[in-house]
Amino acid sequence: MPLTSSEPRPSLLCAELLHAWQLRLRIDPAQLDFASTAELVQEPFSWIGQQRAQEAAEFGLAMDPPDYHLFVLGEEGSGRTSLLRQAMQAEALRRPAAQDIAFVHNFAVPERPLAVRLPAGQGRSLRRRTEAMIDKLPEQLDKAVQQAQHRSQIEQLYNQARQAEEAAFGSLHDWAQSAGLRIRREEGQLVVDSQDSGPAASSQGQTDPADDGAAALAPAALPGSPAAADLDGAMPAPNDSAEADPALLLPMDEESLPHPGDDLDVEGADSAATPATAEDLEYQLRLQLAQFRGQVRQAQIARDAALNLFYQSLATPLWQAASAQVLDGLTPSAEHAATLQRWLSQMQAEWLKNMALWVPGSIAQDADALLDQTDSIEGEGESQDARDDARAMLEAKRKTLRALSQLNLIVDHHGEAHAPVVLEDQPSLRNLFGTIDPPEDDERRSDFSCIRAGSVLRADGGFLMLHLRDLLGDEASWQALRRVLRTRQLRIEDVHASQGPSSSGAMLPELLPLNFKLVLVGSEEAYYQLQESDPDMARRFRVKVDFAEQFKASTATYRATAALMAQRCKLYQMPHCDASAVARLLEQSHREADDQQRQSGRLNQLEALLLESTQRARQSSLQSGQERLVQAADVEAALAAQRLRHNAMEQDLHAAISEGEHVIAFAGSQVGQINGLSQIDTGDHRFGLPARITARTHAGQEGVMNIEREVAMSGPIHDKGVLILQGYLTALFGHLAPLALNASVVFEQEYSGVEGDSASCAELYALLSSLSGMPLRQSIAVTGALNQHGEVLPVGGLNEKIEGWFDLCAEQGLDGSHGVLIPARNQRHLMLAERVVQAVEAGQFHVYTAEHVGQGLALLTGHCDLPASAAHPAEEAQRLPLAVLQAAEATLLQYRLACQRADMARPRAQRASQRQLRKPAKRPPLD
Question: What is the pLDDT of residues 346-367, one digit of tens each?
Fold first, then answer.
């Protein structure tokens, strides 16, 4: 598709008048080769005009060595995020799925949880198998206990304990008879009375010692039995009945034994006995009871130790078989396979040490069996409370051990076949690097199950995208990221540990090696600031993905842009665009770039205009009742609506000029006065505004004075332009040196400051007009920068400047004399609005271009037919109008004579002092 060419033109004496067709690029819809965007929906979203960025991104994403992270720089809305995400996903498809990451409890050192890596999906399988093993092992052990041969062995162990207990009770019974006492059990208590205490005593005295011994051996038969025993030593044991379920046998402690001085219930004791005899008998009774309980305790301890070994012998093969099933089919690396084996071995040892927690459904009955031993003289109420506490303690311990035997799967890639792609929009320290969250009910306690992964771990083995602007305000996150990129390792820490003492701060999970590709998105300024301020961090990003703000337009870029519009119409379910609408949108892309040969890389602005245009087409379809495509008129209407929403300031400033508050001349000619063009950018809207520039000259030695600079209302670029102007004047009139000139230049009614050098040509014209006395046309506004050779340099914001001047002239009434003078090198940047083009085509408005200030001066003064003499001593003067040059030289000569006369009029001593003051001071040597 033909685009406007920029072939060099021969130098002209006067400025060139542009034709209407040169003022903007028009795209023919017929050359787009499609009727509507509906035909382009299936075409992929490509890197429109960003081939350099595409090659850099593909190279960086494919590089495996460390420190080849990507820094993506470009303007907002250039599609950098979407395109990089697309490239990351494409590269991820060529890479295998990442590993699952889990933490398990370290039974040996609880504050140092163990990290485990497994192939994708196997982490979830391991967690499920571990839970199933914990659920099934108690059932398997219960079935093993119920087998006849095993119950026989258990019964034999209990019988041995009973025999020892019966022998101990027989000895106690024989001593009681020899002492004239009888021991019996009533309602869970041992009752001691004399053998001749009545009929009941004779019947009780005839009781078989073996029967009394059996009664005494019942779990609740002894007073002072332990109310709270060591549950770790509790072992399941069968009841007296062969069909009963196993019950817990709990060891007795020494605190339950009787001591001398304790009261005993001795019914029917001989009241006639002497105090010494009764006291001696009571003491001997206590000794016998203590000896009896010690023998019973030793028998129970021996029985429980034997039972513990027996149950462990049954559980150990069950554990080994279950552990093998848990690991069957899993394919971790050798290092992590060893970690899993060590973890399962530790878990096995912990469960074998707590055999009392194994039998399903036995917690309640075991607690009852334990608390039955406390049903003594304390009463039923206290016994029931203690029973509930013991039951709750057993349940809590079982839950705790079960929780410690689980798998904390912090990164799960189940169902994924390719490497992960993670986009983190809130890169806080917690979200990026994970944390250790203590339980809500106890914020000062944490374990391996409290570990949470962040985006860095989820992206391990794949790609992570961050926006630099989200990180710059968080110093902690930035420093942590620097550390991770440098060490390529991560230790998850408690983000709350720095806020105060906490046990969770002592948690030290294993260091996790990392291998991920970071894509950091930022601006161009941020990239170079990083290079300067943090070179160590900057060298981690060896791949620079630079998105161009503009790109060369071509048929391919037009097609790709139209395909993007088609995808957006489909995404938002909006009407598609016809070829004329696409052509108008493409023209606006050129306008955003201020270039007839280039398109803007800020695709978000084009997308916004597309959506607004489709909305207008949809509203029109609803009103007419007939669906239609988006047309060029809809795009024009959307542009007009955009401008109306944002141009309130522009209208106010233009009204101030139209009403005469801000003085601007639109007709006639004036000496030392010209209309310059400026641009105001409010962020969401740009518009042009004329500014009157005036210059005054008189005899003196100070040279050109920039009034804005003197009052600190100009920026460095504007000050540089004025200094360049002064250098050009010095070269132009160097043959008259020294110049006897005092000149002042000012922007009239400018109170907010001036920046930029686009007014330096206008300032030069005003100065030369003041020197020569030649008036300048006020109907032509001027913009353009100047170099020291008098060449006119291009400037920015050209379209807005011209349109702003045109609108004001149109309000005053176009008469064919109005126009603008712009740099010739700016012609390719013209993308003027249709209203301006139509006025130029009708001859009511004119656009002139100049390559040299002499051409502009000739146009503004009307002396295009008076070339400067080739024999003029200054080369710069050979391209200026002769009349202007001669008049200016004559004025400068008058200034010089005036200065000489003034100098001669001063006394000789004052002149010598003045010359001494003018002598430049000696500069110290450079360091």
Answer: 999 998 888 777 755 444 444 4
